[in-house]
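task queued by scheduler; priority normal; single chain, no ligands, no partner chains; default sampling; output format set to structure tokens
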Amino acid sequence: MTTDPATARSARARPDAVLARAVDEARAAAVEVAGPSNVGDHTGARPEGDRVVTHLFRCTQPGYRGWHWSVTLARAPRQRHITVDEVVLLPGDDALVAPPWLPWSERVEPGDVGPGDLLPVDDDDPRLVPGWFAGDPATEALVDESTVRSVADEVGLGRERVLSLEGRDEAATRWYDGDHGPATPMAEAAPARCASCGFLVRMAGPLGTLFGVCANGMVSDDGSVVAHDHGCGGHSDVRESRPGGPPRLPAPVLDTVAYAPLARD
């Protein structure tokens, strides 16, 4: 004799009759955990498996709107004795819950690190590579080959780690798309670009082809890395406008108060 699969699934979906009627036993278990004032109306029961049923009760505790007490009951085969498996408080569809947890490394934003705070860097951070691995005189111009290349010869005498290609590209993208790049209201209204400004301090290395450091203490970009095609109103070529032609003299004033004697022939 064969059983239709749909009929078997329907039989498994029906809750155990003995456990489904055990609402009072489930409520007593919830009250024992939460207290009588925090357990509300019975909102339903659902089967969890063979002879396993979960009863749901509304949570009336202040601050837990939309939550419910979940009480799971079970019984052994051919036994009517009911066992309480667990009692837990679970959120419903309209419950107010905390946002998904994020590790601290994904929550830190620029400017969050203050005096005395430490920001550890992972050993496998893709933005960094060992110091002896960085720089190739054949492809990249070095600031001082006599000192920089010695780091590659004797590991440990220089910086332990330096920027990788990924780290350099990430920094360049962040700077170029940030407040000191070309796509800002300040740069769009500027009379000229930073590349032609006398206050721009050139940077060495690959990043120097796109960026420099502003040294104009009268503007907000002072001390910041700026893109060559950034700009502001403090460009070194800006001059005070003066009207053309000879200087204008004040109109003559006639003295009508004092007098002076005139000589006669």
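post-processing summary
- The chain has three domains: 5-91, 122-163, 167-227.
- The chain is about 20% helix and 20% strand.
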